[in-house]
Amino acid sequence: MRHRLITALSAAALLGALTACQAVQDAGNAADKTSICLEALRLANFSPSTQNLEQTAQDAKKTSEELTGLAERAADTTLRDAINGMAEQVQSLSVPNLDPTTVTNWAQQKLNAFTTLAQACG
């Protein structure tokens, strides 16, 4: 009888420890998601400059790479897909053909990607 009580108490303690570990992991995942979202939304504010096309191309490439790196860190697949979508949108900017119509169309598509990202972060 005493052995069963010790076994039951040990099992209860182990279950409590596992539950506490899961709660800590869940809190860590939420903090990671929050920090990833904040950084992704900051990067998603990328805007092209028609004044310096070379710099715009470099900035678009760098921003896209940074977004892709964030997506790799995201555990949530919806968030990962949204960040990758934003990275693809930033990278899709056709710098050699940058004119007001191109920028307007690109900006609308970027807004759609931004909305998807914001929803994934919500």
UniProtKB/TrEMBL annotation:
List keywords of the entry alphabetically.
Signal
The superkingdom listed in its UniProt entry is Bacteria
- Tell me the leader sequence span: 1-22
Record's protein name: Lipoprotein
